[in-house]
Design brief:
The complex is a heterodimer of chains A (460) and B (107).
Chain A (H helix, E strand, L loop, with lengths): L3 H21 L5 H18 L9 H21 L5 H27 L8 H28 L13 H21 L3 H19 L7 H23 L2 H24 L4 H6 L23 H9 L3 E6 L1 H5 L3 H13 L3 E6 L9 H8 L7 E3 H4 L8 E5 L8 H4 L18 E6 L19 E5 L2 H14 L1
Helix pairs in contact in A: 1-2, 1-9, 4-5, 4-7, 4-8, 5-6, 5-7, 5-8, 6-7, 8-9, 11-17, 13-17
Chain B lengths: L2 H20 L7 H11 L3 H10 L4 H30 L20
Helix pairs in contact in B: 2-4, 3-4
Classes of the chains: A alpha/beta (460), B mainly alpha (107).
């Protein structure tokens, strides 16, 4: 029997989690909310040792220390640009942990003939499958974001069949585990779950990966909740369900911010259609210019809109960009940053990156608010962005990004693209705007070129 | 009340709480919120400790310890990386460069 005070401590931790989520959804309370969540987790991790009847304390504490050191080191060292893949990785290991816990639970449940423990067995099977799906799926998203594998949708002819078969196999095995439980079945179930996870994420295109991370996050939450039911632990049930529910809802919010439906995100590539754009470099003529020409263009404009993208952050050019905007401001040019909901690699990612460069909040304008202003803009400066200003999203029904709301950069008088090369964006498709008559390209590493541009503007 | 019904009650109520508390989140905070929620499901660590602590065989112990390591990475790394993200959102203190006139009105 678990002591009552331990149960009450779990309740306190659960309340901390709820307050944490509440805090995290408002800019003001976000940091405190996160700290509250950590406090709740810490309380739970201490009191769990007072449940009684636990052995192997030394190895467990060593394992906790190892995990904490690994987690802390990775979290401290990662660059802000790589955060999305880190979240994917952390989510994956959480799912893996849940699946392993469920396997051990299964071996504890085994002496029964399955009759009295149906619910517990079903929950165990659920945790094993969903935990492994989340583990494998998250690792594939990690590989995609880290560009270890192609960011384009991976589709092969038998894929829908293989996915369907894996899903059916998982379902059949889960039913078997409940009817005639055996440990080896649990292991096979886990392996099938891994296959489902890989097959689920492979066909998802790079630009949609954030939505999938959020979905897998919700999956892990649900598997933790089911694990909590089997273990008879209310905190796991509440914590897991909170994440499962809020994660599912957040996934929906993200998808609608990108103008996508969830089914389209997951299965869009399977319906064909994203055959557009071989990811090859086009050799059509473009107009390019040097930093001095662009400097004149910017300095004598009245209204400039900057469209920052992932390339800006990769080159670490956000500080130089802010300086440039400040100098332009001193010359009387009105400058704003147009923030696409998914600029960067995730919703809100660009806000994090620009906040790091101390760009004031007021200058960051969300898409809906600024899209009407592009017509009046003299110059749009696109730095390291591509897909978010690609008119194909409006005009080309077959394109992978078709239907995604974009920034109306093409409506401005002049467009300047700062690009490293003619390589297509993350979605892997050509951008017609690059070849437009009013477009000027400024090639080079964003940081270096931005520095030259800054000096050129200062010299005017 | 049947114990399973109690669990179901907690489950259903938690779903509503989970959706309600984040219903008003702004796009800006989607990434930190996802990351924070991600850290919270690291609470599976409690489960990992419980099953590892009651296990009998060496094989199960090894699997359990692996689960403990993975869950701790999830939890500790998750909260720390969320904090690093949110650190960037600190309201900017007035600095000398803020003294320069704003040019929003020139448009």
């Amino acid at each position: 029997m678990i002591p009552s005070w331990v149960q009450l401590a779990y309740l306190l931790a659960a309340v901390c989690f709820i307050m944490a989520l509440k805090g995290l959804s408002s800019p003001r309370g976000a940091r405190r909310g996160n700290a509250l969540g950590a406090a709740g987790a810490l309380i739970a991790c201490v009191v769990v040792f007072f449940e009684g009847g636990l052995h192997h304390l030394v190895p467990i504490l060593i394992a906790v220390a190892v995990g904490a050191a690994l987690g802390a080191a990775t979290a401290q060292r990662v660059q802000m640009t790589q955060m999305p893949q880190l979240v994917a990785l952390f989510n994956g290991v959480g799912g893996g942990a849940a699946a392993l816990v469920a396997l051990l639970e299964l071996s504890d449940l085994l002496p029964t003939d399955g009759s009295g423990e149906r619910f517990a067995l079903a929950a165990t099977a659920f945790t094993i499958v969903v935990g492994s799906v989340s583990f494998a799926g998250s690792l594939v998203t990690f590989a995609k974001l880290q560009e270890l594998i192609t960011t384009r949708p991976v589709v092969f002819p038998g894929l829908p069949v293989a996915f369907g078969a894996a899903l059916l196999a998982a379902l059949a095995l889960a039913v078997l585990v409940v009817a005639r439980p055996a440990l080896w079945m649990g292991v096979v179930l886990g392996l099938v779950g891994l296959a489902v996870g890989v097959l689920l994420v492979l066909p998802v295109g790079g630009a949609d990966v954030p939505i999938v991370i959020s979905l897998l996050n919700a999956f892990t939450g649900l598997s933790v909740a089911a694990g909590g039911y089997v273990l008879g632990n209310t905190l796991l049930l509440v914590g897991g369900t909170l994440v499962g529910a809020s994660g599912t809802f957040l996934t929906k919010l993200m998808a609608s911010a990108m103008g996508r439906s969830l089914t389209h995100t997951l299965f869009g590539a399977l319906q064909g259609g994203s055959t557009l754009g071989g990811g090859e470099i086009s050799d059509r003529p473009v107009r390019s210019a040097g930093p001095e020409d662009v400097a004149i263009l910017l300095a004598y404009a009245q209204r400039v809109i900057v469209v920052p993208g992932y390339g800006l952050a990769v080159a670490q050019a956000q500080h130089t960009l802010r300086e440039l905007v400040d100098v332009l401001g001193e010359r009387g040019v009105s400058v704003d940053y147009a923030i696409h909901p998914v600029a960067g690699r995730m919703p809100g990612h660009m806000n994090v990156l620009l906040a790091e460069a101390q760009v004031p909040y007021e200058q960051l304008v969300e898409m809906e608010r600024i899209n009407g202003d592009f017509k009046q803009a003299d110059v749009v400066l696109v730095v390291g962005a591509n897909d978010v200003v690609n008119p194909a999203a409006r005009t080309t029904p077959g394109a992978p990004i078709y239907g995604m709301p974009i920034l109306n950069a093409d409506q401005a008088q002049q467009v300047v693209f700062m690009k490293r090369s003619m390589r297509p964006g993350f979605a892997g498709i050509d951008n017609e705007l690059l070849f437009d008559a009013k477009t000027t390209l400024l090639f080079g590493d964003a940081k270096e070129t931005m520095g030259k541009l800054l000096n050129a503007v200062k010299a005017l | 009340m049947n114990e399973s019904v109690t669990w179901l009650t907690i489950f259903i109520l938690s779903i509503f709480v989970g959706v309600e508390v984040i219903a008003k989140v702004s796009t800006t905070l989607h990434t930190p919120l996802m990351s924070g929620a991600n850290a919270i499901h690291g609470i599976i660590l409690i489960g990992a400790i419980l099953v590892t602590g009651t296990t009998q065989s060496t094989g199960a112990l090894v699997v359990g310890l692996l689960a403990v390591v993975l869950a701790t990475i999830n939890m500790v790394g998750g909260f720390l990386v969320t904090d690093r993200m949110l650190e960037m959102f600190r309201p900017r203190r007035p600095t000398p460069s803020d003294a320069t006139p704003k040019r929003q009105d020139t448009a």
